[in-house]
């Protein structure tokens, strides 16, 4: 006979699928021992660049019980964002994750629904939803939950679906059945390391954040360094190179989340259109998009750098 814990686990996973998540894995909440020295080394080497928020809440990043009292389980969820159509290939490029509506809002709503479901169906369960904006090591938890392995480009990879997905968590004070870790399937492949335009993947599984095109075009508020001129491969917001070349992304299938569909103008714009973009057009094309983080001034700075 199926026990209560297994029953709850199955209920949660089937509700996650109903809400549109690609997959759902669960791991025991506890201190991330292997990640601690890795994170410490990464910060010590200054690979966070100007992303000083990465230095905050070091303990919380490694221990979910500091985020949710009496945390028992970390429920990791993946949401596909791979588009069915791409931008005009002759144009400046935007990372695929930013084509549609800002994922923070889309996923947060789904997580709230999932937590509500758990509380309604199972009873008094305390938990918190996390989408990339709190001190949680998303990829480490997803890997622990068996949803994939951390690849040489430091992204979570899955044999079934590649890597074009968002990662989110619910941390709850409920005991559930835990999934097992999967194995690494990068093998001898170095496609991502070889293709990175700024050589940001400084060693297999180590990305120097301060050299990444996504960092320069989104996080860096200062002027872009002249030493990087000509190395951005036409990316004006984010970068997908290390994912585009990954052999596992042959298995990416288009998402079916209408909120992630882009404004058609975004796909058809030429370089000239981008160079002449007005505040009004920017607002229309990126109405609820993650691109608003850079503001029009940031996007123009990036475009000027590419010219």
TrEMBL record:
Q: What is its main location?
A: cytoplasm
Query: So where does tRNA get bound?
Result: 221
Alphabetically, the GO molecular function entries are: 4 iron, 4 sulfur cluster binding; cobalamin binding; epoxyqueuosine reductase activity; metal ion binding
Which residues make up the binding site for [4Fe-4S] cluster 1?
A: 186, 189, 192, 246
GO biological process per UniProt: tRNA queuosine(34) biosynthetic process
- Tell me where in or outside the cell this protein is found: Cytoplasm
Q: How is the cofactor bound?
A: Binds 2 [4Fe-4S] clusters per monomer.
Job of this protein? Catalyzes the conversion of epoxyqueuosine (oQ) to queuosine (Q), which is a hypermodified base found in the wobble positions of tRNA(Asp), tRNA(Asn), tRNA(His) and tRNA(Tyr).
Q: Any idea what this protein is called? A: Epoxyqueuosine reductase
Organism equals: Flavobacterium enshiense DK69
């Amino acid at each position: 006979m199926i026990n209560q814990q297994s029953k709850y686990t199955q209920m949660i996973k089937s509700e996650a699928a109903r809400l549109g998540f690609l997959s759902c894995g669960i791991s025991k909440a506890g201190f991330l021992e292997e990640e601690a020295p890795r994170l410490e080394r990464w910060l010590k080497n200054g690979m966070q660049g100007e992303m000083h928020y990465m230095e905050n809440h070091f303990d919380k990043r490694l221990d979910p019980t500091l985020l949710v009292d009496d945390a028992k389980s970390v429920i990791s969820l993946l949401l596909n964002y791979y588009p069915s159509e791409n931008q005009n290939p002759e144009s400046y490029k935007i990372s695929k994750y930013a084509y549609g509506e800002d994922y923070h809002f889309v996923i947060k709503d789904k997580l709230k629904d999932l937590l509500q479901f758990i509380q309604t169906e199972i009873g008094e369960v305390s938990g918190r939803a996390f989408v990339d904006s709190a001190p949680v090591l998303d990829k480490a938890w997803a890997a622990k939950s068996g949803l994939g392995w951390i690849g040489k480009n430091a992204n979570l990879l899955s044999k079934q679906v590649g890597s074009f997905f968002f990662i989110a968590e619910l941390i709850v004070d409920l005991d559930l059945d835990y999934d097992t870790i999967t194995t690494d399937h990068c093998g001898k492949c170095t496609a991502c390391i070889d293709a990175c335009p700024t050589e940001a993947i400084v060693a297999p599984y180590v990305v120097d954040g301060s050299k990444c095109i996504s960092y320069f075009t989104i996080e860096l508020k200062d002027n872009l360094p002249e030493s990087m001129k000509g190395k951005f491969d036409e990316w004006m917001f984010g970068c997908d190179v290390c994912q585009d070349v990954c052999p596992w992304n042959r298995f990416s299938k288009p998402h079916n989340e209408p909120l992630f569909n882009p404004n058609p103008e975004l796909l058809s714009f030429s370089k000239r259109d981008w160079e002449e973009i007005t505040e009004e057009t920017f607002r229309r094309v990126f109405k609820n998009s993650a691109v608003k983080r850079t503001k029009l001034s940031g996007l123009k700075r990036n475009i000027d750098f590419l010219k």
